[in-house]
Amino acid sequence: MSIEVGSVVEGVVTGITNFGAFVELPEGKTGLVHISEVADVYVKDVHDFLQENEKIQVKVLSIDERGKIGLSIKALQPKKEEEHRPSAAGGHTSFHSPRPHGGRGGFQRGGRYEGTNASFEDKLSRFLKDSDERLTDLRRKTDSKRGGRGSRRSD
Q1: 8, 33 contact by CB (below 8 A)
Q2: How far is CA 17 from CA 20, 34, 52, 87, 118, in A?
Q3: pTM score, two decimals?
Q4: E strand or H helix that includes residue 56
Q5: Which of 22, 36, 95, 135 is at 20 to 30 A from 66, Cα to Cα?
Q6: Pairing of β 69-72 and β 30-34
Q7: Per-residue pLDDT at 35 exceeds 70
Q8: What is the end-to-end Cα distance of the chain in Å, rounded?
Q9: Which residues are CB-contacts of 85 (< 8 A; sequence separation ≥ 6)?
Q10: For the chain, where are the alpha helices, taking DSSP H only?
Q11: Which residues are registered as beta bridge partners of 140?
Q12: 103 alpha-carbon distance from chain centroid
């Protein structure tokens, strides 16, 4: 059986790194399961999910021109029922980031501008208004500390 994109094959974990796991496939080929493709939850350490010499089923995601094989374990796991069912309140599914809120990463889904039936334009308008108010407050506080505009200077 040749290894093709989309096929499911059995392999043996030959090495684990901080970015994924190397898997020996049939025909003596080796592929990589990137850390993001190990499980459908946040993976801090691949060792928590895999061990060397473990037999696993993987799906072939890609084969590049140099012969590098990209693999996934996550693609073979059944999707959770909650991800497919619309929520009663918002009529859409919600996304919860594995990253704790307040950390790096910028604007995250599931925040204050999500969860309503408002259009994208309404959400954007609300975001811009809130952002403008925050900037105004920030400028007001920093100007008063610097003796900003309108303050009297003693000569």
Answers
A1: no
A2: 5, 9, 11, 38, 44
A3: 0.50
A4: strand 55-63
A5: 36
A6: parallel
A7: yes
A8: 88
A9: 93
A10: 81-84, 120-146
A11: none
A12: 13
